[in-house]
Design a protein that fits this description.
single chain; alpha/beta; 3-stranded parallel sheet; 10 helices; 10 strands; 14% strand; ATP-binding
């Protein structure tokens, strides 16, 4: 059997505010998976989207994780310090004919679709119509506002991405048809999430990505981008989300409060239960206050979820 690379996982929060109950559950899941595999757990602060970041939030996230005993095995990395890597990746894509400049605004995209008789559904993602593709005339003398990945022709093998999630099972998407040519660098100069995360995962040697299932629909775009850059594809596991009383996903944008760490063990218990681990009933009286015991039990229970661990 071919030797597999050592397990390297990561937690990659955006410092748009402190961790809430949902983001703590995501952090715990990635930590447990790394420990169940005997691997390493890294921490990456995804702060390339400057307008979303809050001053001091990254430091608060580090403090919250440490309070819960979730310590990275290597020094944390900050995306804002890695711009040269993203520049090099974009240059490779441009040189290879896989990325191109785009002059379109959101209003331009809306008009292009309206001209074809399409009605945009509320909250639905805009599928880029390919207005600035080189084969359609390119920028036509207009300055480039952003850079996009050329996803190919809808229905073509290059655009069809099928992959298997360790929890959700078989997944499939025609990226060209359902997303279109997505942005790599935005009009405001910020690097897009898709490019930054793909470059970072490869540069840090990430073999396993464990994150919330709300990010599952990003995976086909990231796999397409990995292939365009000749980078390896990690194993993916998308975990259950923590939801508010109204059923909506807990998120900073919807006003989710910071996780209450007055009792870190209690917070970890709630996170473990949100992930489906039957941890509460297995604790001895009084054990909930001892983080090492609680985390050790969590690793044991996670490792018993054979379909998640064995399929990685």
């Amino acid at each position: 059997m071919k030797d597999l690379p050592p397990y390297r996982g990561r937690f990659a929060p955006t410092p748009s505010g402190p961790l809430h109950e949902g983001s703590l559950a995501a952090a715990l899941a990635s930590w447990l998976d790394a420990r169940a595999h005997g691997g390493r757990w890294l921490l990456r602060i995804e702060d390339v989207d400057g307008p979303r970041c809050q001053s001091g939030a990254a430091e608060e996230i580090l403090r919250q994780l440490a309070c819960c005993g979730l310590l990275p095995d290597e020094p944390p990395q900050w995306q804002s310090q890695r711009s040269a890597l993203y520049d090099a990746a974009l240059a490779r894509l441009i040189d290879g004919g896989r990325a191109y400049g785009c002059a379109c605004t959101r209003a331009d995209i809306a008009r292009a679709w309206a001209a074809q008789g399409h009605v945009h559904e509320r909250h639905a993602e805009w599928v880029y119509p390919g207005t600035c593709r080189p084969e359609r005339g390119g920028l036509a003398g207009r300055p480039a506002r952003a850079w996009r990945l050329h996803t190919g022709t809808a229905g073509s093998p290059a655009s069809l991405i099928d992959w298997r999630d360790r929890r959700l099972g078989a997944q499939w998407q025609d990226v060209a048809a359902e997303v279109g040519d997505f942005v790599l660098r935005r009009a405001d100069g910020c690097w897009a999430y898709q490019l930054a995360v793909v470059v970072d995962d490869a540069e840090q040697g990430i073999t396993h990505v464990v994150r919330g299932e709300d990010l599952a629909d990003n995976t086909p775009r990231q796999i397409l981008l990995q292939r365009a850059l000749g980078l390896p594809t990690p194993a993916y596991l998308h975990t259950p989300l923590v939801r508010a009383a109204d059923g909506e996903k807990l998120s900073k944008s919807h006003g989710a409060p910071p996780v209450d760490l007055t009792d870190p063990a209690a917070a970890l218990l709630r996170a473990a239960q949100a992930l489906g681990l039957p941890i509460q009933g297995m604790l001895h009286p009084g054990a909930g206050g001892h983080l090492p015991d609680l985390l050790g039990l969590g690793v044991s229970l996670w490792a018993q979820q054979a379909e998640w661990v064995a399929s990685s």
